[in-house]
Design brief:
- This protein is mostly helical.
- It is built from 14 helices and no strands.
- It has one domain.
- The protein is globular.
């Protein structure tokens, strides 16, 4: 069978490819944790490897895009990096302390928190129906937490890590929206500055925690999972998604990425032998309805 190689086909392939690549992230995290690496070290190494991969690619193919980078863009990128470091670290803790399905489903609420923060801090006026969408997503999120509180309290800590990771993720995405059009930098200089700031934050935490001696994994298997997590799950996955935003409306891209929790849960079932919680999957309906609705409503307004 001959696969078409037209530009239109390649653009259409971006979103399913991004969703599939990102769906593997919690699997890589769980497999890396089995090598006795603390969550903070996993976060640090993940970001270091991703930054090196993106930095090498940008230096080879996008050197000219670094020429224009305003001071205002630098401040926004550094602030975004702080949020990104917190987001990554808390998400790794969430994957370790709760199920893969719970962790990824709670992360899917990032657009909801972004809409709320945009209204509170950037004075963005949401579409009137967005409040109903937020309420639906909040109901689904509370259903996830209530299910664990009722039947599996051991996972509740991980659920809270997932929620706070989503809050930090919303801050990370929102920082770029604080910039006026004239200060918007190109993708690679912005994202590499974000990664550099996040790397600095995590390095400070590693030193403060006294775990600097564990930065370099001691087994080839740990290196394998970390390289896959950094290069494939982070550098490639985020780049595919950001590239897709050049061709698709935000709600279309966001809707496709919402397939990630389902894909991750299936992968966890196959690879990690993690069972499904049917009550948690009831939460998928209100969360997905709320997130897709707010993405569509805000893109129109």
């Amino acid at each position: 069978m001959v696969v078409p190689k037209s530009p239109a086909f390649r653009r259409m392939a971006l979103l399913p490819a991004a969703a599939m690549v990102l769906a593997w992230v919690p699997i890589y995290i769980r497999l890396t944790a089995r090598e006795n690496l603390p969550a903070l070290i996993i976060a640090f190494d993940r970001l270091l490897i991703a930054a090196l991969a993106l930095g090498l690619y940008a230096t080879l193919f996008h050197r000219r895009s670094f020429a224009q980078f305003t001071r205002r863009a630098l401040v926004a990128a550094v602030c975004a990096g702080v949020f990104f470091a917190i987001h990554i670290y808390l998400f790794i803790l969430a994957v370790q302390y709760t199920t893969v399905a719970n962790a990824v489903l709670l992360i899917a609420t990032i657009p909801i928190f972004a809409a709320i923060f945009g209204h509170l801090f950037l004075k963005e006026k949401p579409h009137p129906l967005s409040y109903a969408a937020i309420a639906f997503a909040a109901f689904g999120t509370s259903l996830v937490v209530w299910t664990d509180l009722r039947w599996d309290p051991a996972h509740l800590t991980g659920d809270l890590f997932g929620l706070f990771s989503a809050l930090a993720g919303a801050g990370y995405f929102l920082m770029r929206r604080t910039l006026p059009q004239k200060d918007l930098p190109a993708f690679f200089p912005y994202i590499l500055t974000v990664y550099a700031a996040a790397f600095t934050v995590l390095l400070a935490l590693v030193i403060a925690a006294g775990t600097a001696s564990q930065i370099l994994p001691r087994t080839p298997t740990a290196w394998l999972w970390l390289v896959l997590l950094g290069v494939v799950g982070t550098a490639l996955g985020h780049s595919l998604y950001n590239k897709a935003l050049d061709y698709f409306k935000a709600y279309v891209a966001g809707s496709w990425i919402l397939t990630e929790p389902i894909l991750s849960a299936v992968l966890a079932w196959i690879i990690l032998d993690e069972s499904f919680n049917r009550y948690v999957f009831l939460a998928v309906i209100p969360i997905y309805f709320g997130v897709i609705s707010i993405l569509r409503l805000e893109s129109r307004s």
